[in-house]
Amino acid sequence: MGIIDKLNKDFESRVRLGIMSILMVNDWVDFTEMKALLFITDGNLASHSSALEKAEYIEVKKEFVGKKPKTSYRVTNKGRSAFNEHLNSLEKLIKSNN
Amino acid sequence: MNQKHQEDLSHIRSMMERSSRFISLSGLSGVFAGLSALIGGLYVYQLFEVNGIEYFDRKQKVFAADMVSELFFIAIIVLFSALTFGIFFTIRKSRKYNLPIWTTATKKMLLNLAIPLIVGGVFCLALLFYQIYFLIAPATLLFYGLALINAEKYTFSDIKYLGFCELILGCISLFYVGYGLVFWIIGFGILHILYGLIMFKKYK
Fold it and tell me: What CATH number is associated with residue A72?
């Protein structure tokens, strides 16, 4: 098994990398702010975040603030360790190629 | 392939930084805040001279009521213009680099900045109340320095060096009472201009 196998397929897209990076250094981040930080559309964020939720890497909270629905995200312990592993393999790959 | 991994890593780093720190603060904000303070300070000094008050004669000074209200008015103008320039250049920078302004990081930074500032403000009001005027200048510098160091986690961490400089200056000024205006001009004027220029060059 080569190092390449260790790269997590769930983190292949830039958007997912972005979502995970933001959640690694913040607690709950809401939908609007996430969208603004990543420069992506509603649909794009919704589809990528639900994929990450399905993998149990992030937790989604839906609540009402007044009459407006508000969706927030937080990284789970599983997501945290998966992302750390992904970072480690990225680092190794870059080192071995240099 | 390697190129893509490098880009992934730098993307991760920039996302982490952008989401956790308020990085839209422009160096120019510091420069113009400093200039406002400098002009305000020099104007006050000139005002003393016109009114026959020798600032450096080390004597206890008694100010007329209209003089006090004029000094207060100048202070408000300086504060207002410093804040206006600060907000203006911040908005300009965030537009230029497409950074969102009102984020969690911004709110956290403002909260952490505000706590020592508000306590310091109350402390200075108490000093005014007890007529201990000579400690007001050192107190403003000290609380401002603490506020900057407190906000360091949520913005460019270089801001702590400005905080340390304000603290050192504040400590020195505790033992040179009667030179409050000079320390104010150095702390809020010159240090801001220097810091702003350094930041402007570093993060241009």
Answer: 1.10.10.10
Q: How many CB pairs under 8 A join A and B?
A: 56
To test the contact with chain A by mutation, choose from B1, B10, B15 the residue with the greatest count of A C-beta atoms within 10 A, namely B15
Give yes or no for a contact between B31 and B191, defined as CB atoms under 8 angstroms apart.
no
Exposed/middle/buried for residue B64 (C-beta within 10 Å: 0-12, 13-18, 19+): exposed
Q: Does B1 touch chain A (CB under 8 A)?
A: yes
Task: Classify residue A7: in a domain, yes or no.
Answer: no
A21 at B interface, C-beta within 8 A: yes
DSSP symbol at B152: G
- Is the Cβ of A40 closer than 8 Å to some Cβ of chain B? no
Average pLDDT over residues B10-36: 91
- The structure's pTM equals 0.83
The answer to whether the CB of A23 falls within 8 A of the CB of A29 is: yes
Predicted pLDDT of residue A1: 42
CB within 8 Å: B15 and A29 = no
Asked if the structure places residue B111 within a domain, the reply is yes
Q: Is the pLDDT of residue A97 over 80?
A: no
